[in-house]
Amino acid sequence: MNNQEAKEKAIREAYGDLWETVKSDVNTTGWCTLFIMYVHDDNTDIDVVRDHIRHDPIKWRPKSLRGINSNNGWNRIDGLDSLPRGNCIYTVLGKSGNIEEWSFTGGDNCIAIWLEYFTHWRPLVELPKPIY
Asked: This protein's superkingdom (predicted)?
């Protein structure tokens, strides 16, 4: 499954039982323009964008899709082209769900390990040191 297919699957799953009803009105970032229900601001399961003048709902989507544009900073591994480009240490998500730090050297053994054991990677974010 490539990145686009995985993204579309995540959107379908977020809508659940409503998917068949709303699918033609959902865009590639998961926003829906079909209002099959009255959208309340206090609904904790959805995000709503409202018209600035009339405050009418313009679009909505499940909150679980927040960050879908960037995949929350994660790069999905679906082949050689999706691996990191630089020799560095990265944060990786293992197929078992564990998050670790691993180096990527670009060598054949390294590539084989990454393709076998990891599903996602992202640049390692260096945390600031404490002041006191």
From this structure: Bacteria
Q: Is the pLDDT of residue 64 over 70?
A: yes
Q: Is the pLDDT of residue 108 over 60?
A: yes
Look up the domain containing 24 and give its range: 3-65
Write down the pLDDT at residue 33.
87
Quick one: which H or E segment has residue 104?
A: strand 99-104
Whether residue 88 is found in the same domain as residue 106 = yes
Strands (DSSP E) along 31-74, which ranges?
46-50, 57-62
Please give the tally of structural domains in the chain.
Answer: 2
Yes or no: say if 46 and 22 are a contact pair by the CB < 8 Å rule.
no
| CA end-to-end distance (rounded Å), the chain | 47
Same domain, 42 and 94: no
Percentage of residues in the chain with pLDDT exceeding 70?
A: 89
56 neighbors 50 (Cβ within 8 angstroms): yes
Task: Kindly state whether residues 8 and 55 are assigned to the same domain.
Answer: yes
Q: How far is C-alpha 18 from the chain's CA centre?
A: 20
pTM above 0.85, yes or no: no
Cα–Cα distance for residue pair 36/60, rounded to 1 Å: 11
Q: Quick check: is 22 in a domain?
A: yes
